[in-house]
Specification:
Blueprint lengths: L14 H6 L2 E3 L8 H9 L4 E4 L7 H17 L7 E4 L1 E3 L2 E2 L13 H7 L2 H17 L4 E2 L24 H17 L3 E7 L16 E2 L3 H6 L3 H8 L5 E4 L3 E4 L2 E3 L7 H10 L5 E4 L5 H6 L2 H11 L4 E3 L3 H16 L5 H18 L2 H5 L4 H22 L1 E5 L6 H4 L6 E6 L8 H8 L10 H7 L13 H11 L3 E6 L6 H9 L2 E6 L6 H19 L5 E6 L14 E4 L5 H11 L11 H10 L8 E2 L2 H19 L22 E8 L6 E10 L2 E9 L8 H14 L6 E4 L10 E2 L4 H10 L7 E9 L11 H7 L3 E5 L6 H10 L2 H12 L4 E7 L5 E8 L32 E8 L6 H18 L4 E8 L3 H5 L4 E11 L9
Parallel strand pairs: 1-2, 1-13, 2-3, 3-6, 6-7, 7-9, 8-10, 9-12, 15-16, 15-17, 17-18, 18-19, 23-24, 30-31
Antiparallel strand pairs: 4-5, 10-11, 14-19, 20-21, 21-22, 22-23, 24-32, 25-32, 26-31, 26-32, 27-28, 28-29, 29-30
Family: Belongs to the glycosyl hydrolase 3 family.
Pfam families: Glyco_hydro_3 (PF00933)
Organism: Echria macrotheca
């Protein structure tokens, strides 16, 4: 096995073995063929891509993967095969099994449901299922931004046209995959979200945006995902790039794209996977041998060749020739090899690979996953408009009236019951897929068009209304006499569209029917019209002539069942449009006022914990300690600090949409935290909370100043300083804050105490200055300390010191004294698991358990605290601060802590601590303003 932190196992010094690990290949067929066996045994192929053409059922998949791994094991592979799969949900699932594998909404459908936490759960469920049959690498999440959303073939496979929303949901999905033990692969770098299909002489789509434009939009989710450190691989696309600074025929063959942009500019150090090199344009232009070498030269670590055995052998030969011709060095080969082996070590082992849990696990988890699927689809159904109040249909239609369903001819989705039936009957299409079709599903498993796709939708509608249903399809031939006759008969017409912007006959047909309905209504007839977009929501999003418009975001059987439930009032559809479409609607709601209620611990604490976790997933990596914060952290129960907390909530589901914590002590009113569910932003929830919080504080008798940010509790000591701070500052300025009156705070840490040592000469400098230190506990001998704190710190910090002194078993205060015994500075020392640590997220173990005890935690989770150093400005202030920090570290080591957290350091005092080996974890700006800023609220 590779020693990942040192030299490679001698086996890998055989270049044939090393080259085999740099290729990912597939084949057509549901059984192991002699060709794929030969590639694994004799060419040491290390990674397999499975597609819908390989997979019949969960049981067959588990058996197939186990056979592949057994072949590799018996052939002497030191590590198992990577087994990769496209399992994006919606319309792109390679593995389908009605009995054991759950269907979930597409990426855009999950965003429509409005919950990153739900997206995380869906991703974790999906990864758990495919892991059970032996898959260890999911080719996802999709991180493309639909810059020109209306016309892009990726469609609902992408989250939206908003880079921050794509980041939020992409990171949530990535975390779900990782927590299920599966490796992740972001795609499709640098972007498949704004492809031009008309400008390439090579018959491949191209990106025409400049690098500056890409950096502001398309690259944002990739950058954010990389910054989390959890992205194992990146799928590099095969599209071209044509702009003033870059002219590239195939992105995955370009060092400008892979080595320069992906690795150097974005800092990615995981596995780069190329697009499939069996692309016809690439084969005819430069050939697979040269293309494979170019991909590795560009910086790719895994080269994909999907299915053609002759071409796969050609690629292997090409890599060997590349080494012989000295185009590829051994160092380059081993750099990729180490990356691939590192990823394998993180997601698989022989024990896991040879014994996938299979059906036994899938049977156990299936009921819970079905319930999650039901919720996800119900939450995703979106009513964009219902101007005539036609929903629910059971209230707007009489039993005896006829309902007409008009559906287009579309290809069944690659993984669906219908596809399965058609494949089993060998009834395959001979029609060649279009350019768009190839790029929608990468030409993997798309099959014949037919009316049957929506047949079950018609049956479900008939069952739901217990009445008559008329159903026929429509084509590019337009409105025919049969359609006219049925429209005259029906009192309600449902038209289904699927990507009408790219299938223009659907748009024309729908507008023709809408005009007919309008004319018939003018004669007094009842002709209700509903349009349902079952793929891209952009079909009629902006067309107000369609008065009732719904979106489902995919046309799987599961999505259609949810649509029927929504149409007939089983639940009120609550989904929303993605990205800028949602925001354009939210502008109309910007003056909405939300009911703000007082926080109730018994009612709201669980909802607040859920809200904190949603924030943690959405903000990673900017606020990593939110995941260790609990609802308990905001309640002080201190008789000297009045606290009042507020929520905006859904009274039906008990979900919290927003939370604000306020405190009042000794004339200072404080907003200690204010946050809103990421899925509910831009609709004035934060404004409503902020206004209520200020009104509460301004009514306090004796208020002298209002403070934004609080050191105790230390969840948000101020406005976080990160790439989002400009937007936050702008928000607070519009809320009446003057941000020039601020002081900067930093949380710092020594990440590994076992290897830390005091800077040379520090102790001698302290001794020469005759500074002495002692440690005190309890309030009996703390008068000098409390006087010092009251003079030099905020009133909430005074209460923090009092609490620390009362916690005699786990906390104490270190005093720095001059030769004449005057106090030069103080700092609180906390041992792991102290009561005080519950109010400081950075001191919580990464397990996320705020209730964990030191005895229940592993050694590397024991965190000591050095809290609130108070050092007045003197000539010796820097030395006093460093001395207090040194004493704190010694105490933390004595308590067997693995790391020290120093929270919080004011203004520029952190610089001397950097010299001692502390790292900055987070920075904040605490703001103070006079109450007169909000005289209109007082």
């Amino acid at each position: 096995m590779a020693k990942l932190d040192g030299d490679l196992d001698p086996l890998w010094h055989d270049l044939d073995w090393a080259i085999g690990q740099m290729l990912i290949m597939g084949w057509d067929g549901t059984e192991v063929t002699p060709q794929i066996r030969h590639l694994i045994e004799d060419h040491h192929l290390g990674s397999i891509l499975l597609t819908a053409k390989n997979l019949k059922s969960a049981h067959q998949t588990a058996k197939l993967v186990q056979e592949l791994q057994t072949i590799a094991h018996q052939a002497g592979h030191p590590q198992p095969l990577l087994i990769a799969l496209d399992q994006e949900n919606g319309g792109v699932n390679s593995l389908f099994d009605e009995d054991y594998i759950c269907q979930f909404p597409s990426a855009m459908g999950q965003a429509a449901a409005g919950s990153a936490d739900l997206a995380y759960k869906v991703a974790k469920a999906t990864a758990t299922e495919v892991s059970a049959v032996g898959v260890n690498l999911i080719l996802g999440p999709v991180l493309d931004v639909l810059t020109n959303a209306r016309y892009q073939p990726l469609g609902v496979r992408a989250t939206s046209d908003d880079p921050q929303e794509v980041s939020q949901y992409g990171i949530a999905a990535m975390n779900g995959y990782k927590d299920a033990g599966v490796a992740t692969c972001g795609k499709h770098f640098p972007s498949y979200g704004n492809l031009d299909f008309l400008g390439s002489s090579l018959d491949i789509p191209i990106i025409t945006q400049t690098l500056e434009e890409l950096s502001l939009s398309a690259l944002v989710p990739f950058r954010n995902a990389i910054a989390t450190g959890s992205l194992d691989a990146m799928f590099v696309g095969g599209c071209g790039i044509a702009n003033p600074s870059m002219n590239v025929n195939h992105a995955c063959l370009s060092a400008q794209v892979v080595d320069d942009l992906l690795r150097n500019d974005l800092g990615f150090n995981g596995v780069a996977i190329s697009e499939c090199l069996e692309m016809e344009a690439l084969r005819t232009e430069i050939g697979v041998k040269t293309g494979t070498v170019m991909a590795v030269e560009a910086g790719c670590d895994l080269v994909l060749l999907c299915r053609c055995y002759d071409v796969q052998l050609e690629a292997i030969s090409g890599l060997k020739l590349g080494v012989e011709n000295e185009l590829l060095t051994k160092e380059r080969i081993y750099t990729s090899l180490k990356r691939v082996l590192r990823m394998k070590a993180s997601c698989t082992s022989w024990a896991k690979a040879l014994n996938p849990p299979g059906i036994s696990l899938l049977s156990k988890i299936h009921p819970g996953h079905l319930a999650l699927s039901l919720k996800a689809y119900d939450d995703s159904i979106t009513v964009v408009r219902d101007t005539e109040k036609l929903l629910p249909l059971n209230e707007s239609m009489h039993q005896e009236e006829e309902l007409l369903l008009l559906t287009p001819l579309v290809k069944p989705l690659p993984a669906s019951a219908m596809t399965k039936t058609i494949l089993e009957s060998k009834n395959k299409s001979d029609s060649a897929p279009s350019m768009h079709d190839k790029w929608v599903h990468r030409d993997r498993g798309a099959i014949m068009s037919g009316e049957g796709v929506f047949r079950e939708l018609g049956r479900s509608l008939a069952r739901a209304r217990h009445g008559k249903l008329l159903h026929t399809s429509y084509t590019a031939n337009g409105v025919r006499p049969v359609h006219e006759n049925l429209i005259h008969r029906a009192s309600c017409i449902i038209i289904v569209t699927a990507d009408a912007n790219r299938n223009l006959y659907q748009a024309g047909f729908t507008k023709h029917v809408a005009m007919m309905c309008s004319m018939l209504k003018a004669t007094g007839q009842k002709k209700s019209l509903l349009v349902v977009a079952v793929s891209s929501p952009y079909d009629f999003a902006m067309d107000k002539t369609v008065g009732t418009y719904l979106c489902t975001f995919d046309f799987t059987e599961t999505a259609m069942a949810a649509l029927v439930r929504g149409l007939f009032g089983h639940f009120p559809p609550s989904g929303s449009l993605p990205g800028t479409l949602r925001k354009s609607k939210k502008v109309l709601k910007s003056r909405q006022h939300w009911l703000v209620e007082a926080y109730n611990r018994d009612r709201d604490s669980r909802g607040l914990d859920d809200l904190l976790q949603s924030l943690a997933r959405a903000s990673a990596p900017n606020q990593p300690f939110l995941q260790t914060t609990s609802a308990n952290a905001f309640e002080l129960f201190n008789p000297n600090i009045e606290e009042a907390h507020f929520v905006v909530r859904n009274s039906s589901t008990q979900a919290l949409y927003g939370f604000c914590a306020t405190y009042f002590t000794k004339g200072t009113g404080i907003i200690g935290a204010i946050f809103v569910d990421p899925a509910k932003r831009n609709v004035s929830i934060g404004r409503s909370l902020h206004r209520r919080a200020l009104r509460n504080l301004l009514q306090r008798r004796g208020i002298k100043k209002v403070q934004l940010g609080m050191s105790f509790p230390g969840v948000f000591p101020g406005i976080p300083v990160d790439e989002n701070s400009a937007g936050l500052k702008s928000w607070f300025v519009s809320g009446g804050w003057d941000l020039q009156y601020h002081q900067r705070l930093a949380n710092m840490a020594i990440p590994e105490l076992s290897t830390w040592s005091a800077p040379e000469g520090l102790l001698q400098s302290i001794q020469r200055a005759s500074i002495s230190f002692d440690l005190i506990h309890g309030l009996d001998n703390a008068e000098s300390v409390l006087n010092h704190v009251a003079t030099h710190a905020n009133p909430e910090v005074f209460e923090l010191y009092k609490l620390a002194l009362q916690e005699t078993k786990t906390c104490g205060v270190v005093r720095a004294k001059s030769p004449v015994d005057s106090l030069l500075g103080t700092v609180i020392i906390c041992s792991p698991g102290s009561l005080l640590a519950g109010y400081i997220p950075a001191m919580q173990p990464s397990t996320g358990s705020a209730k964990a005890t030191p005895g229940s935690l592993p050694r590397d989770q024991l965190i000591g605290g050095i809290i609130a150093p108070i050092v007045p400005s003197t000539a010796q202030a820097t030395l006093v601060l460093q001395g207090l920090a040194l004493m704190g570290v010694r105490q933390n080591k004595a308590h067997k802590s693995s790391r020290s957290v120093l929270s919080w350091v004011y203004d520029d005092a952190y610089e001397p601590l950097l010299a001692m080996g502390f790292d900055v974890l987070q920075a904040f700006e605490e703001i103070t303003n006079p109450p007169e800023n909000w005289s209109d609220l007082g």
